[in-house]
């Protein structure tokens, strides 16, 4: 009882001691954690300091002094950065004056100034990061950046939309000035003496320019590949330029001799003898008579109309004295991928350029040179975007007669479109085709095999050249989508069929034909009343 009473009396004292201890610890903590100034510690007002108000005013003044000093320091740093930026700008101007021709900016100066070295190192890194000297692995067929092609007068572009034309003059001043600058720089580079050859080099002009392709990688720069006439027949000059969001830099200047480069045109076929006759007329004129460095491989499925097809081949062989053809017959269901794969593997000669073609394709001799120039074993494969012809019956329905085939091959918005969703026409060296694994032979019938091969190349380290070409046409023919196709193949076939008929405007005129005729009839009635 006494013990309990003593504990009750001691409890208030214990609580008081705990309160005093907590307050002391709080004061010590606040003193220890008070922020320090530049040379002294800022403390709370103490007992012997002036009033509490004066103590806080002192703290605020010291804080204000700290911020003032910090602002002064920032201003000094900004002034230093401005001075450094101005110095770098002057260095860049001096370098541009020292090298007025941007093609003369080499990447291997022996003793460049630090600013020049930094700039050139950056430009070189842009070239290395871009797809210039080698391809990069891509995930899908939509990841490839396509090229656009151009001549002295025209630009052949893919992204036309509904207001631009697939073939047009470069109406935008920036695009026109850009292409003129590139051609002039390339001509200047060709006319610059190399210091090795003693013979007087030919003088190149813009008229020697044949065609070029270009594409822009948004975070790196623009790549240009320009082809000029060479010193002899079948010889060309090729200039590769790169604009790494700065001055244009010469990447490569090489002689390209295509005199001995053979193209093996491989055509899978089943029936369609009349179309094959039309194809052989084009092949004879462009491939045999104008080009002359060509081989034809026909892989025929089944036996129906086979004798007629062989007769067309033999007649062409006799009349044109042409022996460079191979006829392979397969007794099985038609498969485009299988036919192309068999034709490619059947070749027994040296490494050759393979042009995978169809019977409803029209090509020019210029395209065959583009096929050679844009392929390189182990480095490049060529996927041209061809111009697909609309239904002539719709295009020329208001004419008295349909023009001849040659007159129909005009690149205009009303006559056709760039077939940028098709990957069937392609040029590559046979060695690259075999190394990549060829076609997927499990795909039967129409469509799909070309996309699989295209994806294989995209997934490799080969550079895929994808550009519209002015010398490759898909001729219109009525498309039959068979019931035997898979749902995916049937959908692709129907989409292709719809795209082939006519332009948006021409299809619109057909859809609203009744409304147009009704409107015209009302106009006639109203004119009679007045």
UniProtKB/TrEMBL annotation:
A biological process term (GO) from this entry: chondroitin sulfate proteoglycan biosynthetic process
Top-level taxon: Eukaryota
Pfam family, one: CHGN
Gene Ontology molecular-function annotations: glucuronosyl-N-acetylgalactosaminyl-proteoglycan 4-beta-N-acetylgalactosaminyltransferase activity; glucuronylgalactosylproteoglycan 4-beta-N-acetylgalactosaminyltransferase activity; metal ion binding
Catalytic activity: 3-O-(beta-D-GlcA-(1->3)-beta-D-Gal-(1->3)-beta-D-Gal-(1->4)-beta-D-Xyl)-L-seryl-[protein] + UDP-N-acetyl-alpha-D-galactosamine = 3-O-(beta-D-GalNAc-(1->4)-beta-D-GlcA-(1->3)-beta-D-Gal-(1->3)-beta-D-Gal-(1->4)-beta-D-Xyl)-L-seryl-[protein] + UDP + H(+)
InterPro entries: Chond_GalNAc, CS_glycosyltransferase, Nucleotide-diphossugar_trans
EC number: 2.4.1.-
Membrane-spanning residues: 7-32
Claim: Methyltransferase is one of the keywords in the record: no
Coiled coil: 64-98
Record-level GO cellular component terms: Golgi cisterna membrane
Membrane topology note: Single-pass type II membrane protein
UniProt key word DNA repair: no
Keywords in alphabetical order: Coiled coil, Glycoprotein, Golgi apparatus, Membrane, Metal-binding, Signal-anchor, Transferase, Transmembrane, Transmembrane helix
Cellular localisation: Golgi apparatus, Golgi stack membrane
Family according to the record: Belongs to the chondroitin N-acetylgalactosaminyltransferase family.
Name of this chain's protein: Hexosyltransferase
């Amino acid at each position: 009882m006494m013990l309990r009473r003593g504990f009750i009396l001691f409890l208030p004292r214990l609580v008081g001691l705990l309160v005093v201890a907590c307050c002391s610890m709080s004061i010590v903590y606040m003193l220890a954690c008070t922020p320090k100034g530049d040379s002294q510690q800022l403390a709370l007002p103490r007992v012997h300091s002036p009033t509490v108000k004066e103590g806080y005013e002192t703290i605020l003044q010291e804080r204000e002094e700290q911020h003032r000093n910090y602002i002064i320091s920032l201003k000094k740093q900004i002034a230093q950065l401005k001075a450094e930026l101005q110095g770098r700008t002057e260095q860049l101007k001096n370098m541009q004056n020292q090298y007025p021709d941007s093609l003369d900016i080499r990447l291997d100066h022996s003793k460049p100034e630090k600013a020049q070295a930094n700039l050139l190192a950056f430009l070189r890194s842009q070239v290395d990061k871009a797809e210039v000297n080698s391809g990069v692995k891509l995930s899908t067929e939509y990841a490839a950046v396509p090229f656009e092609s151009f001549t002295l007068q025209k630009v052949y572009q893919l992204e036309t939309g509904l207001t631009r034309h697939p073939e047009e003059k470069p109406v935008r001043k920036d695009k026109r000035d850009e292409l003129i600058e590139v051609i002039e720089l390339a001509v200047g580079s060709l006319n610059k003496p190399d210091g090795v050859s003693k013979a007087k080099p030919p003088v190149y002009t813009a008229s020697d320019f044949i065609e070029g392709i270009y594409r822009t990688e948004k975070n790196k720069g623009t790549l240009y590949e320009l082809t000029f006439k060479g010193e002899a027949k079948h010889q060309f000059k090729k200039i590769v330029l790169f604009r790494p969001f700065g001055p244009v830099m010469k990447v490569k200047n090489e002689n390209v001799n295509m005199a001995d480069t053979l193209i093996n045109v491989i055509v899978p076929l089943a029936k369609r003898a009349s179309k094959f006759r039309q194809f052989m007329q084009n092949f004879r004129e462009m491939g045999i008579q104008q080009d002359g460095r060509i081989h034809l491989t026909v892989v025929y499925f089944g036996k129906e109309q086979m004798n007629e097809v062989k007769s067309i081949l033999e007649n062409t062989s006799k009349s044109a004295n042409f022996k460079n053809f191979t006829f392979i017959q397969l007794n099985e269901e038609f498969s485009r991928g299988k036919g192309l794969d068999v034709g490619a593997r059947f070749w027994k000669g040296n490494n050759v350029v393979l042009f995978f073609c169809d019977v409803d394709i029209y090509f020019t001799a210029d395209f065959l040179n583009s096929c050679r120039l844009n392929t390189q074993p182990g480095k490049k494969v060529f996927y041209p975007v061809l111009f697909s012809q609309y239904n002539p019956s719709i295009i020329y329905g208001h004419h008295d007669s349909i023009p001849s085939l040659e007159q129909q091959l005009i690149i205009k918005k009303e006559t056709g479109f760039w077939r940028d969703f098709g990957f069937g026409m392609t040029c590559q060296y046979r060695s690259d085709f075999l190394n990549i694994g060829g076609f997927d032979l499990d795909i039967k019938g129409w469509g799909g095999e070309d996309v699989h091969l295209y994806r294989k190349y995209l997934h490799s380290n080969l550079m895929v050249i994808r550009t519209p070409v002015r010398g490759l046409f898909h001729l219109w023919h009525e498309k039959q989508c068979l019931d035997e196709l898979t749902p995916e193949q049937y959908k692709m076939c129907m989409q292709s069929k719809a795209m082939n008929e006519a332009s948006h405007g021409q299809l619109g005129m057909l859809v609203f034909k009744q409304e147009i005729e009704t409107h015209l009839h009302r106009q006639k009635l109203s004119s009679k009343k007045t």
